[in-house]
């Protein structure tokens, strides 16, 4: 019989600019397939799903910001996982308020709820080993402990915080009491800690009962409790999302769970985890986690390395070939609209690329070529002085707003699936290989009434083809 | 009063795989804008045009292979130069047969014709200095000399052949008699030659009267003369091109003008040229000729270098941002469909990239994203399993073939200019923001009857959207 169910709490904050160009503000790294075929978010959700290794995972509770809510549902749908709830943070306030909101939400059903809180942008290749670690942690919950997970270091890493244990973990990997948190060390300190055996990397993954973490908040971060309760109690349901009330949320302190609670709590146990783990904090980490070959080379499907060493070559498009010749210690990541080439030792400076592009006004700094919307996504295929061509993909059952334009006419050609198209008073179905003309000024809408994605080519012509030439009359996503 | 006119003979052979991805078999480097806004071919044609510095250039005689004939006319038209004749070589046979054909063609009008033979893929930034060198060479023609141009070396280059002079050139830069040709040297030899002062780089640029070079062929390479005469006399005029007859052309020896004639001719003078010159034989040469800044960095418009040294960063598209961080001695060239990242010392190995891509069957090895055709060009914007979207640009007055397809229907939307469209028995004008539907199997044609380029978006749908699903009924370019 499986034990009491565990509710995963997936945190989807974080912008990951150090993984530009694949990770951008408009589409951060947790939603990108950095390692393997699935995105990091999908892999995180799958790792904490189903029944296996004596565990019984409930539907996940997801915390996301408003911009990415539809990406969350789309990516979960694609791997067949139904979220229990998706809580929308009015603004990011770091992990403490988010986790407290999740705990209060779960406690409303059952204060004994067991929550496993995990960032959604980490790589943990061995799911079975991780689930076994979770199972070891359950024992400590009975005594009201808050459990965190510590990764056994395999190198003197200076980029992570550490957890100092009261004693060396034994071979069973049973929870050990925490002595204290240790900030990111310098190299010498990191080397000492590596040999000591009582220091583990702080992975930011937690296991606790809802009532215990709420109690810890009440003791150590009392100022957060009432405002978060208020935002939750006034939350509004919107298309299946639970939108936390902006007031008083936006007044909350921006603070991590470590600072707010964990560093002060006496009842902290650490479960040692000896398998591979990475927070993918840079392209050097992606290179390391991708399994370099004997000469240290990692290449993606459409990348070719000739006489290279310690080099990462990635093409993020099947229409893009990347070739490296005679490279050493280089990482190159190519997309259709942006290419990064950097020395491997400068992985932490990739955010400078983003800053430089922002300074010159290049959209690639923050905007992804595919623009995700509530109803699906679109990408611009070509822009001329008086025309633009887009590919538009609409999810089954989804609908764009009823809209009109002052400066452009549009030709729509359906190339996959079936659209229901409204043009002024006329509504009709348009299927593969059929087209519709939308004269300038007409009031129109595109919907996908079918069961498969609808793909449409839109050809715009007119004196101005910017996104902001739009008048919205009705919108199921409340954007009018 | 300008002197007797000089007919430029522009050689457009050469595939330039060492400049991949910008230079590919389907679109070699001479037709690409490698330095500055114009292509190398356009810059070469412009350098040898008009009346200036006491010279009077006649319309150029261009030698090209069949695949590039329309690129030649398109690029000359764009800079307002009318070619005197475009000779099409049935197959490339190196420079000797091509130059002989040009000389015979010119001699038919006037055996005294002065010809200036130049490759079309060299960089010579100072046009005035070059024209002055040409003017100095004219004096030597009176005595029946063949004149070649020698570049004063500024480094011990091992990648070029040298011309050894009988004496040091004087300050006037007057022609000096050639002692002999010197093959590409090793480093030590190159350093000795650099200090000697009597060795110049062999640039492969020639000046002679038609009758003198023909006479030299008759003396030193007699076997070529009759076959080339025969190919020329049986040449066919085709849309303004002069197509040399394949028989006996294809039987000709593949031999350079240096081997066939110049190394044997006693009447060779060399005009020293002291200004900058490059044959752009690799990306390192492009880097050098692009004027590196104080830290050795060259960046194109959409490229950004952060803490780089001795590095070339090029974006070949206005929709593509390239960023380099902490690079030393690296060259990176990014296009929408291919990216090269290489150590600067490996410039000569870029052809290995082409070989590697050929081996894996990637079209980027040889095919350019823009596909140039007699009537204009097209590019694929997106390809799905059952659809494809293309941008098609048709030159004024040009016409595609009358054709049909077995597996696809097409939607055409004109976004710039006006098209005349034939669909079975119907012919009509279609202008900006109008569309036409072409059902599967219909016989159709697209023409541009207007005075400006016509741009059309083609949306294809069907079970197969390959280029080879085409039946051609009539084609003004004789492709049926």
Automatic annotation (TrEMBL), chains A, B:
Q: Which domain of life is it from?
A: Bacteria
Q: Which keywords belong to this entry?
A: GTP-binding, Nucleotide-binding, Nucleotidyltransferase, Transferase
Specify the enzyme's EC class, one word.
Answer: transferase
Q: What is its EC number?
A: 2.7.7.13
Q: Does the keyword ATP-binding apply?
A: no
Q: Name one GO biological process term.
A: GDP-mannose biosynthetic process
Catalyses which reaction(s): alpha-D-mannose 1-phosphate + GTP + H(+) = GDP-alpha-D-mannose + diphosphate
All copies of the MannoseP isomerase/GMP-like beta-helix domain together span 305-357
Q: Does the keyword DNA-binding apply?
A: no
GO MF term set: GTP binding; mannose-1-phosphate guanylyltransferase (GTP) activity
Q: Where is the Nucleotidyl transferase domain?
A: 8-289
Domain Mannose-6-phosphate isomerase type II C-terminal, by residue range, is 364-475
Please give the family membership noted in the entry: Belongs to the mannose-6-phosphate isomerase type 2 family.
Output this protein's name: mannose-1-phosphate guanylyltransferase
């Amino acid at each position: 019989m499986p034990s009491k169910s565990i509710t995963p709490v997936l945190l989807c904050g974080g912008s990951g600019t150090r993984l530009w160009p694949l990770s951008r503000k408009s589409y951060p790294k947790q939603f990108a397939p950095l390692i393997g075929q699935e995105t990091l978010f999908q892999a995180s959700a799958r790792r904490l799903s189903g029944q296996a290794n004596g565990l019984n995972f409930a539907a996940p509770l997801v915390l996301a910001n408003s911009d990415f809510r539809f990406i969350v549902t789309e990516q979960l749908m694609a791997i067949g996982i139904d979220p229990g709830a998706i809580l929308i943070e009015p603004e990011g306030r770091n992990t403490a308020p988010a986790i407290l909101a999740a705990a209060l939400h779960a406690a409303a059903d059952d204060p004994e709820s067991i929550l496993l809180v995990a960032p959604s942008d980490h790589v943990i290749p061995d799911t079975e080993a991780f689930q076994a670690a979770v199972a070891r942690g359950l024992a400590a919950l009975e005594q009201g402990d808050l459990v965190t997970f510590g990764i056994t270091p395999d190198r003197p890493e200076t980029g992570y915080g550490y957890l100092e244990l009261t004693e060396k973990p034994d071979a069973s990997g049973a929870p050990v009491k925490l002595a204290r948190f240790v900030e990111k060390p310098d190299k010498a300190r990191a080397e000492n800690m590596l040999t000591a055996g009582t220091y583990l990397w702080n992975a930011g993954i937690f296991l606790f009962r809802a009532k215990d973490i709420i109690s810890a908040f009440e003791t150590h971060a009392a100022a957060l409790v009432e405002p978060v309760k208020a935002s939750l109690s006034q939350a509004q349901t919107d298309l299946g999302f639970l939108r936390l009330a902006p007031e008083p949320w936006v007044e909350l302190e921006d603070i991590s769970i470590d600072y707010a609670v964990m560093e002060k709590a006496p009842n902290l146990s650490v479960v040692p985890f000896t398998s591979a783990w990475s927070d993918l904090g840079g392209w050097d980490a992606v290179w390391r986690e991708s399994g370099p070959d004997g000469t240290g080379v990692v290449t993606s499907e459409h990348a070719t390395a000739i006489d290279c060493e310690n080099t990462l070559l990635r093409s993020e498009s099947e229409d893009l070939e990347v070739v490296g010749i005679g490279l050493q210690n280089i990482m190159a990541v190519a997309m259709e609209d942006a290419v990064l080439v950097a020395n491997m030792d400068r992985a932490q400076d990739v955010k400078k690329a983003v800053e430089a592009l922002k300074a010159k006004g290049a959209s690639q700094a923050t905007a992804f070529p595919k623009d995700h919307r509530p109803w699906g996504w679109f990408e611009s295929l070509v822009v001329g002085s008086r025309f633009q061509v887009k590919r538009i993909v609409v999810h089954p059952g989804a609908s764009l707003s009823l809209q009109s334009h002052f400066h452009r006419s549009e030709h729509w050609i359906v190339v996959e699936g079936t659209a229901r198209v409204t043009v002024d008073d006329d509504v009709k179905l348009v299927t593969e290989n059929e087209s519709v003309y939308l004269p300038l000024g007409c009031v129109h809408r595109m919907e996908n009434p079918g069961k498969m994605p609808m793909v449409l080519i839109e050809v715009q012509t007119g004196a101005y083809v910017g996104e902001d030439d739009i008048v919205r009359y009705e919108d199921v996503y409340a954007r009018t």
